[in-house]
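Service request form, structural biology core

Requester: graduate student, group of Dr. S.
Request type: structure prediction, single chain
Budget code: on file
Notes: please return the result as structure tokens.

Sequence provided:
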Amino acid sequence: MKLKKVGSAVLATMLTCSLSVTPVFADEVSDLKDQKAQAQSEMNNLQSQLNTLMNKMSDLENELIETGEEISKTEEDLKAAEEDQEKQYDAMKLRIKYMYEEGTGTATMEKVLTSGDMSSILSQAEYSQQVHEYDREKLDEYIATTEKVKELKNSLEEKQDNLEATQVEFEAQQSELNTTISEKSEEISSLDGMIQEAARKAAEEAARKKAEEEAKKKAAAEKAAKEKASAESSNSGGSSSGSSTTAVEEEEDTYEDTYTEPSGGSDNGGGSSSSEPSYSASTGNAIVDRAYSCLGADYVWGACSPGAFDCSGLVSYCLTGSYSRIGTSSTFLGWSRVSNPQPGDVCAGVGHCGIYIGNGQMIHAATEGVGVIIGPVQSGMVYVRG
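Core staff response, request fulfilled:
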């Protein structure tokens, strides 16, 4: 009856564990992929901004070239206008000089009055006036043209200065965008590495969980088979060996149900045989190394597999290096006892066993919820060597 209750509890625990496994690494991979997608979107946006900026810079360069050409042409026009102004000024000075040399004041007036009829007098006076007006108009015209060209040149130069300032600003933006894109690219590369690592861990975790589930199923099947065999043996009267095995299993179940972390150990050597088995340090160290490698593994009744053991399953693995059971606590109690235990020896008691690691400590598969731990050698245990 007790075995059936324990078997039901183990099966229920297995089902609960299989349903409540949290896909931690899978969630991590998903989160990292979301981060990468966000970073990629940001980089695409930055690249779009850079492309737009490059187009603006190209247009700006063309405008700078056109403005430079306009300034060059304006400078040529200004030079020509200034030359025309200078020529007109020189011509006006020559005419003034000529008129001065021909006579001024009374002499000029006498020439006008002695020139003949009134028509001639008026014509000559009007001509002199027209010459003065023409010179003045042309000079004013050339001065106005020169000023207009100068204003245009100044306006174009101001425009060129503004364009060059904009060009400097665009170049600064381009540098900043290139730096940001480079940093974002490095971030994406780093996320790729993190995704690969998280995916690897997720695969390893999935493989471990699968191995644990298979071990639990195997243990449950073995337990059910043992219960069935025990029931059939009880119904038919049973055999002495069958009764002995059932007793040991019940003892192990009793230990699992009542186990609490001990406060101290007892270095009980038990009785010693007249001829103790020889000790090999290399073999003992190998056994201890295997025991340490199993720390943290789950306790599963009847299991002897990667990541899951019961007490005798752990001892069997540590002694042989293979996941196959070589006996139970009852089996190990029948081995030769030693008076001077060494690391790698077996600590055996009724219903429980472990691997001795020295200083009164052993590594053992304690019970469900505790798993494989280091603890003091239990009172009543003996040290044996195979």
